C-alpha cells in the first residue's frame, strides 16, 4: 500500500508479517492499560516512519522508466558504433530482425526484458549501418540528425510538462489519423519505387519540395507521439502499474526515438541533396 496510514497500521498490514504478529501478542498480554501504551507506541512509530514509495510496493516509477530507457539507449548506441566500424553492411539484417522483434514486443501483454534488449541490439545494427551510409554521402549529417532528435525530444517533453500540450481524445484521434495516412503514403511510395515509377533516392513521393513537406509532417507526428507516450507513462505511474511495465514504457520511447532519427536523417539528406 502506498498510503503510510494503511502500510504501518496493524489492522491493514500484512497478516503474515511476523513483526506485526509479535506486536499484537504483546499488546494482548499487557491488558487494557498495556494495550493503550502499545497503541500509543504504535501510533508514534507510524507517524515517525517514512512513507512507503511506489518502489517499495513494486509499482512503476519515473526513475524506473528513465533507467530502463537509458540502458536500452546505451545498448543501441554501442551496437550502432560497433556496426558502423566493423560491418555496416549488416544494416539490412538489423532492419529485418528489428521489425520482427518490434512487432513481437508491441503485441506482448507482458513485456520481456530479453526481447526488448534484443530489439535495441537489432536496431543498433540497423542504425549503425544506415548512418555510416548517410555519413559517407553527406559529411556531418549524422551529428546533425542526432542533435535534431535530442532537440525534438526535449521540446516535446517541455511542452508536455508545461501543460501547453494536452493529450485529449481529439488530440489522439488526430495523431492516429496522421499516422495511418503517413503509413499509407509510405506504402504507396515504396510500391512506386519497386515498380520503377518516378525517381529520387527516397522514391518519387519523397523528393524535392514534396519530400521536404512530408518529412516535416513526419517529424511533427513523432513529436506528437512523444507527448502521447509521456502521458501514458504518467497515467501508468499514477494508477500504480506494476514496475515491470517500465520495460514497456522504455520500449515505446525507443521505437519513437528510432523513427524520429530516421525521419530527420532522411529530411536532412533531402535538404542537402537539393
UniProtKB/TrEMBL annotation:
Lineage, highest ranks first: Bacteria, Bacillati, Actinomycetota, Actinomycetes, Micrococcales
Report biased composition (Polar residues) as residue ranges: 1-10
The molecule here is called Putative YccA/Bax inhibitor family protein
Q: Where are the transmembrane segments?
A: 65-84, 90-107, 114-134, 140-162, 174-198, 210-233, 245-262
Its keywords, alphabetically, are: Membrane, Transmembrane, Transmembrane helix
Q: Does the keyword Membrane apply?
A: yes
Q: Which InterPro entries match?
A: BaxI_1-like (IPR010539)
The yes or no answer to whether the keyword Transmembrane helix is present is yes
Annotated region described as Disordered, given as residue ranges: 1-26
